[in-house]
Amino acid sequence: MPTALITGVTGQAGSYLAELLHRKGYRVVGMHRRTSTPTTGRIAHLLEQIEIAQGDLHDQLSLIDALKQYQPDEIYNLAAQSFVPTSWNQPVLTAEATALGVTRMLEAVRAVDPSVRFYQASSSEMFGKVREVPQTESTPFHPRSPYGVAKTYGHFITVNYRESYDLFACSGILFNHESPRRGLEFVTRKVSHAAASIKLEVQDTVGLGNLEASRDWGFAGDYVEAMWLMLQHDSPGDYVVATGTAHTVREMCEIAFGHVGLDFEDHVVSDPNMVRPAEVEHLIGDASKARNVLGWQPRVGFKELIEMMVDADLELIERTSRNET
Ligand code: NAP
Ligand code: GDD
Fold first, then answer.
1. 97 alpha carbon – ligand 1 mean position (Å)
2. Is 124 a catalytic residue?
3. E-state strands within 19-70
4. Quick one: residue 2, left, alpha or beta (phi over 0 = left, psi -120 to 50 = alpha)?
5. String of DSSP letters for 238-281
6. pLDDT tens digits for 71-82?
């Protein structure tokens, strides 16, 4: 039974990856940082099946200890400060976790077991002010936020450790992936939750920033399969993971509100605080390499994804209003 260590297991993608690897028969170890209140809500249903290792990307020794104790065959480094707006407020913390945290994980691999297979959660935010459309593995990067800059460092340090030390280190350049488990501040979930709340008369409006920004949005459950496939391949590499279709925030609002019989124009108001100092206007990925080399393809389409999120939020709000957990 192979052992997988997932950093960021309490996050959106970490929870789907833990489910996938457990289904595949892995011994799954999730790395979790110490917090004053529990953050294990997304993996509550898995806590009997997986093991939890305490560790923090800011603390080198905790990573080395986790590797020594659990001796993983595969490491999926998903932990990061992942919310783009926060990276302008906390650029140094973002660089510590999202950039230098990658080096600390790679150093732990080198120190404990260089034969470990390593996955780094890189991001389409690295393309930023895009140089070509659609974006591929060879499109140059032009990040537009401290988060994007930190992820670009994380990507290149992964490539560098592969080239310098012959590590089996892969970088997955993933475009936006969403689900009912998405954090509430990200735009898809903010809108799905608002559409459900407004339908159930819990609130009346929602404030959004740039409605014309467009993203290549896919389903997180599909994208974790690509992560696993990268580490099963004969040789390490870098892969774009995307659907190849893009939609604006406005189109996403139309679908979400339309699904509950509402017109988004009656409820979406402009919130200048949500406008970013430097915006990524348009992202769309070409995942031909992942399709041809790994045999990966997305299953859930955009409309189905947004409707799934709205349905889950309707159920969540109704359950909460009945005081159930
Ligand atoms: P997420 O929901 O924000 O989860 C982030 C995870 O990182 C959480 O488990 C968080 O723990 C953990 N974490 C943060 N700082 C840490 C630290 N210093 N030490 C240890 N753990 C720490 O993110 P996600 O959407 O699942 O994304 C997973 C990864 O993929 C991230 O690296 C993200 O940047 C990257 N990515 C995401 C997307 C996307 O569209 N979702 C696209 C491309 C790349 P707590 O629960 O304690 O906060
Ligand atoms: N969050 C948010 N809130 N975004 C808004 C809002 C709002 O009220 N109104 C408009 N937007 C626009 C943002 O300006 C951005 O262009 C787009 O919606 C998507 O924003 P997010 O959902 O916050 O995601 P992101 O694209 O910035 O970053 C996500 O995807 C990256 C991959 O490209 C995160 O998951 C990153 O961690 C990930 O790397």
1. 10
2. no
3. 27-32, 51-54
4. beta
5. EEEE--S--EEHHHHHHHHHHHTT--GGGTEEE-GGGS-SS---
6. 999 999 999 999
Contact between 13 and 34 (Cβ < 8 Å): no
Phi-psi region of 178 (alpha: psi -120 to 50; beta: other; left: phi over 0): beta
> What's the chain's Rg over C-alpha atoms?
19
Q: What are phi and psi for residue 322, nearest 5 degrees? A: -90, 5
Please tell me the predicted confidence (pLDDT) of residue 76.
99
* Closest residue by CA, ligand 1 atom 10: 8
Tokens matching residue 268: 């979406």
Question: Phi and psi for 268 in degrees, rounded to 5?
Answer: -90, 125
DSSP code for 282? B
Asked if residue 216 has its Cβ within 6 Å of ligand 2, the reply is no
Q: Which atom of ligand 2 is nearest to the CA of 249?
A: 18
CA-CA distance, 215 to 246, in Å (whole number)?
5
The pair of three-digit structure tokens given for residue 170, joined into one six-digit string:
């892969």
Q: What is the pLDDT of residues 170-198, one digit of tens each?
A: 999 999 999 999 999 999 999 999 999 99
- Give per-residue pLDDT as tens, 149-167: 999 999 999 999 999 999 9
What are phi and psi for residue 77, nearest 5 degrees?
-95, 85
Return the closest-CA partner of residue 7 out of 79, 57, 108: 79
Return d(Cα 241, Cα 226) in angstroms, integer. 7
Q: Is 212 a catalytic residue?
A: no
Q: Which of 161, 183, 185, 181 is nearest to 171 (CA)?
A: 161
Phi-psi region of 199 (alpha: psi -120 to 50; beta: other; left: phi over 0): alpha
- Cβ(285) – ligand 1 distance below 6 Å: no
Q: How far apart are CA 149 and CA 119, in angstroms?
A: 19
Task: Pick the closest to residue 55 from 97, 3, 21 (CA basis).
Answer: 97
**Length of the chain, please?**
325
Angle between helices 146-165 and 101-112 (to 10 degrees): 20
